[in-house]
UniProtKB/TrEMBL annotation:
<dbReference type="GO" id="GO:0004984">
    <property type="term" value="F:olfactory receptor activity"/>
</dbReference>
<keyword id="KW-0812">Transmembrane</keyword>
<feature type="transmembrane region" description="Helical">
    <location>
        <begin position="98"/>
        <end position="119"/>
    </location>
</feature>
<dbReference type="InterPro" id="IPR000276">
    <property type="entry name" value="GPCR_Rhodpsn"/>
</dbReference>
<dbReference type="InterPro" id="IPR050402">
    <property type="entry name" value="OR51/52/56-like"/>
</dbReference>
<keyword id="KW-0472">Membrane</keyword>
<keyword id="KW-0675">Receptor</keyword>
<protein>
    <recommendedName>
        <fullName>Olfactory receptor</fullName>
    </recommendedName>
</protein>
<dbReference type="GO" id="GO:0071396">
    <property type="term" value="P:cellular response to lipid"/>
</dbReference>
<dbReference type="InterPro" id="IPR017452">
    <property type="entry name" value="GPCR_Rhodpsn_7TM"/>
</dbReference>
<comment type="similarity">
    <text>Belongs to the G-protein coupled receptor 1 family.</text>
</comment>
<feature type="transmembrane region" description="Helical">
    <location>
        <begin position="241"/>
        <end position="261"/>
    </location>
</feature>
<feature type="domain" description="G-protein coupled receptors family 1 profile">
    <location>
        <begin position="40"/>
        <end position="291"/>
    </location>
</feature>
<dbReference type="InterPro" id="IPR000725">
    <property type="entry name" value="Olfact_rcpt"/>
</dbReference>
<keyword id="KW-0552">Olfaction</keyword>
<feature type="transmembrane region" description="Helical">
    <location>
        <begin position="273"/>
        <end position="293"/>
    </location>
</feature>
<keyword id="KW-0297">G-protein coupled receptor</keyword>
Length: 319
């Protein structure tokens, strides 16, 4: 038992409990989701880069969201692939800590980008004439840098603290990838400091971000209601629909998952795993779909690409 404290331990990940025999079949829709995420977010980035009319703050923030979604997909992919395709559940401590660092870092980045997008919508609706002077390119670059520094800086201590803990219990994790609370539970030592730090990070990032997003929409609603024309009101609100969908896609499963972790002793292991998949796998897949459907400029540009690819037919109508 004491030797396990000094040797680097391994952990065992969990797929969908009770469906182990079907893992190879479940790998097909999971692979499709990863391919869709890679294709959709790469397409968004390429369209924004290649279309000069999209070189605006809103689309720069959308590009940040696409990069974050690609990072989140890449963070969960290695262990999902080994569990469902290869049937391998064991993961070394160092690899586990590296994965949880990237998953949590990109998750906080996603939350931060959604907050900056809420601010972008607020500025666009409340001060349309000053929009380009408030959200200048250097300011957007500074916001992007601040998001990276905040997300990375807050998560560097977590794996270092976990690395120092002894692990001598049955090392079975309850998810298909390594997450901070999950790994921490398997330590056979006092983890109150780790738990307090984890709670501090969650409250100071996801907690504050969600409150500020709600506050931003309160201000947006106040501004919209002061607009006299009903058509203008609907037009202003319509520019927020994509962002609201992305916020709901990200925060709803996360809130459900945290509630189950705190209070849901009754919840089945399968429901935890599915909620976790909803939180980490669906936003990278659906965000590009939502923005393509709701954003006319992106939709037209993508249609133009496919049309020219299918026969060189040029769309002369532009916008």
């Amino acid at each position: 038992m004491s030797d396990s404290n000094h040797t680097s331990p391994s952990f065992f990940l969990t797929g969908l409990p009770g469906l182990e025999a079907a893992h190879i079949w479940l790998s097909i829709p999971l692979c499709a989701m990863y391919i869709a995420s890679l294709a959709g977010n790469s397409l968004i980035l390429w369209v924004v880069k290649s279309e000069p009319s999209l070189h605006q703050p809103m689309y720069y923030f959308l590009s940040m969201l696409a990069v974050t979604d690609l990072g989140l997909s890449a963070s969960t992919l290695p262990t999902m692939f080994t569990i469902y395709m290869l049937g391998l559940r064991e993961v070394a401590l160092d690899m586990c800590l590296l994965q949880l660092f990237f998953i949590h870092t990109f998750s906080i980045m996603e939350s931060s980008v959604l907050l900056t997008m809420a601010f972008d919508r607020f500025v666009a609706i409340s001060s349309p004439l000053r929009y380009s002077t408030i959200l200048t390119n250097p300011r957007i670059a500074s916001l992007g840098l601040a998001i990276i520094v905040r997300s990375v800086g807050l998560h560097i201590p977590a794996p270092i603290m976990l690395k120092k803990l002894p692990y001598c219990q049955k090392r079975l994790l309850s998810h298909s990838y390594c997450l901070h609370p999950d790994v921490m539970k398997l330590a056979c030592a006092d983890t109150r400091i780790n738990s307090a730090y984890g709670l501090f990070v969650v409250l100071s990032t996801l907690g504050i971000d969600s409150v500020l997003i709600v506050f931003s929409y309160g201000l947006i609603l106040q501004t919209v209601l002061s607009i006299a024309s009903k058509a203008e009101r609907l037009k202003a609100l319509n520019t927020c629909v994509s962002h609201i969908c992305s916020v709901l896609l990200f925060y709803t499963p996360m809130i459900g998952l945290s509630m189950i972790h705190r209070f849901g002793k009754w919840a089945s292991p399968c429901s935890r795993v599915l909620l976790s998949y909803l939180h980490f796998l669906t936003p990278p897949v659906l965000n590009p779909v939502v923005y393509t459907i709701k954003t006319k400029q992106i939709r037209l540009r993508i249609l133009r690409i496919f049309r020219s690819g299918r026969g060189g037919i040029e769309d002369t109508h532009g916008h």
